[in-house]
Amino acid sequence: MYVNNPDKIKIHSFLPFIHKTLLKRKFRANKDITNKNPSGKRQRFKDDPKNRPIFFASHIDAMIFSKYNSILIDAYEKHIENKPFNESIVAYRKIPVVKGKEGNRCNIDFTKTTFEYIKANQDKDLSVIVADITSFFDNLNHKILKKKWAEVLNEPTLPPDHFNLFKSLTRIKYVNSQQLFEAYNKTIYVERGVANSSTKRERVKKRISCSKYLKEKNAVSYCDKDYFLKNNLNLIISKKNMTGIPQGSPISATLANIYLLDFDELIIKKIESINGFYQRYSDDLIIVCERQNEDDIIKLIRDTISGEFVKLTIEPKKTKLYHFEFINGLFKGFAVNETTKEPNNNKPLEYLGFSFDGQKVLIKNAGFSKFYRSMKGAFNRAITYALYSKNPDKSLFKSRLYKRFTYKGAEGKLIYRPSKDDPKVYNKTKEYNWGNYISYVYKANDSMQSINGNNAIKKQSRKLWGEFNRLMKFHENRLS
Known about the structure:
The protein has 480 residues and is of the alpha+beta class.
């Protein structure tokens, strides 16, 4: 197989990445508490969106990156298995819930471990430091990356096949997704089923009105490699800089962990010496220590991240400080101004999508807001299809909406498909319907019960059922 042949890979010509920017909307509550909406809540305003540049590799290139990602994951795991920070690095790794058994830990488990550590040390005045590395993937130093990549492979320098991948990731060439879409006159090959066959697929050229529908229409490619290189070289953009790798390639996440090997080792050495706690999830890190050590630790992480081994930055505004202590007989956690040490008692610790105030763990409101916006959008699309499609019964396809947005679709189930011989007979597959966001809420609730002592997280989701039914009634009335 081509991707398994190092001699082929060392001379492989990688195609340019396809680049697009994802926009993440941000809403903030107005700080003026007197400025409220008619319901009595503080008004919210739309803040500047967060731009996230993503790069997609071509099909064969993605297969190569995936293959070498697998090689690097194995090498990285072997390299750190006896390191003191082995259990502190939690992103982009398969860490079993129970060693030797199926099932891996997720962000719920990692967050729980952190909050349990805080809860278990209530007898101390604790400081919690949460920091975010600035523009992580965009600023990885190429010389350091190359050195650590070779170190993980236990080689003096990168082998030729690995070096070819390194060049493709550091001498980035890409085409803009929308420009490519326009260059091919909004026409692309899509994959679809063949009439009277449950297994055969065919590729046909089809015109699509907007690039956001490409995934929905099962878009496959604009053309083959030779045609692209012959006719579209004018679309290629070269990014010549000494830092950064493309975020979105199958291998980028593993390389990010490899890059921070020295940082993790230096930080864990200090944290262990003061009996603290350290965890890093990609570019987000959290440290728990006794109050007397907080200033030294903040200085350490900033000096280490900007030092010769890493050459990155953590901006002060991206460093959050929290204090946990007993107040009026209750163990409480709250945000603190790093400079003045002034407390903000209404702002609990936030980490990996959860909040913790010393008493209970909750899912951040932003998670529910995102889910509600997704639900509202799905209803809007459903009503559009019902009103303007060729479907004669003008159906909303309510079962799909219930399955995606309510407890009725929360349970994971094995998928059955019609038999090829008899369409009335359904056979088991190896596929699963893994549930929906409500499944995540239930899992988080069950996991955090040992801290909460009740169903506090499950109670957060109660409003979603009411909102779902309100949207359903509203759109059914539009059809009547």
